[in-house]
Amino acid sequence: MVLPFFGKKPSPGTGSAGAPGAERGAQRPAAPPTELSTLDFTAGDAAHALARCAGLVEVQEMDSGVGAAFEEAAVLYANGNVEDAEKVLNAVLDGPSAQAGEGLWMMLLDLYKLTGQRERFESRVLDYATRFERSPPPWEDLSSQAARPRSDVAPLINLSGKLTGQAAAQFQQIGVIGRKSGAIRIDLSRLRSVDEDGCRLFLQLLQSLAADRVKVSVLKPSQLVNMLEGQIAAGRAENRDAWLLLLEMLQYAGEQERFEQFAVDYAITFEESPPSWMPKAQAAMSATQVDADAEKTPDGFCLEGEIAGAQAEGIRKLAAYAAERQRVDVDCSNLRRMDFVSAGTLFNILATLQAQGKLVVLHKVNAMVAALLRVMGVDQVAQVTLRN
Hints:
- By secondary structure, the protein is of the alpha/beta class.
- Among the domains are: 156-288, STAS domain (Transcription Regulator spoIIAA); 301-386, Transcription Regulator spoIIAA (2-Layer Sandwich).
- It has helices spanning 22-27, 46-53, 67-78, 82-93, 102-114, 118-132, 168-181, 196-211, 221-229, 240-253, 256-270, 281-288, 313-321, 340-355, 367-375; strands spanning 156-163, 183-194, 215-219, 301-302, 305-307, 327-331, 335-338, 359-365, 383-386.
- α4 packs antiparallel against α5 (102-114), α8 (196-211) crosses α10 and α9 packs antiparallel against α10.
- The termini are close together.
């Protein structure tokens, strides 16, 4: 689902004469006001910045007629005032008119998730299901106490220089890291040479990790394949470990045709059955979870935690990250809160990127942060998709 989620905005010139805000809607240009991109959101104190800049921010009214509560709750939460934000939302949802749309309900339910209030969530989610006659969103604790660091990215080990028998201690340490994490990535792009002892140690490491069910991903295996190919010769029964490591690397590279060719040569050379083909490239990639959200956010840029004041450095890095990309996907699934000043900084950066013809998509934003982004006009300079 993509913002806006509080009903369709009136198109310029199409508002009804009797509808609140229709006259302003008819005069408002389609593009976001250029004045907003020049606002100063650099002050360190969010409350003072809000007081100084609030009068300059254009907030578009919601068709549901609850725009004021929507804006107030979004800004209160952005400034860390959770209790008052909850009161504002509950006051509207419990009001006599009971005309609040799904957007405000999602804000309240997400607020309970973000603050770990499961009992209140379960009480309110029943009202949601009754009101909209559909299955309610499931409970998920998104509070800072429940937040855990990303553990789905396997440790990365670089093998560089010469791989010889002197690397025994290094391989032993790699084994310890892999068994501790349950998965490991081994990058061979910096490897320059390997001898028979190095081949034996590396092969033993891979076999040992496989026996312990550690998930291994080998990056740039072709780098080592090319080295080993020059060190073996069909019919010459020497460098057996180099042969076996070559066959192992071809499996990580997913090159079955070359594997079968070398397997035949190995059988002829050593007069024994070669290892069986067992593709490892795809399995290793999915097992290590190099990026758990790779399909959803191909570029892998993330905004996480609570972004306020000094923690806004991640937002500033977005501009540099987007420099060589035409489309930038930002994972916001672990973003709990963003303050007013940081949202203003984000708008300025996104407005600049939009002017450069770039598309930025903010994925899986919780409803409370999404409300602030709408108040700040961020949904006018980027696509914002809501967390399910």
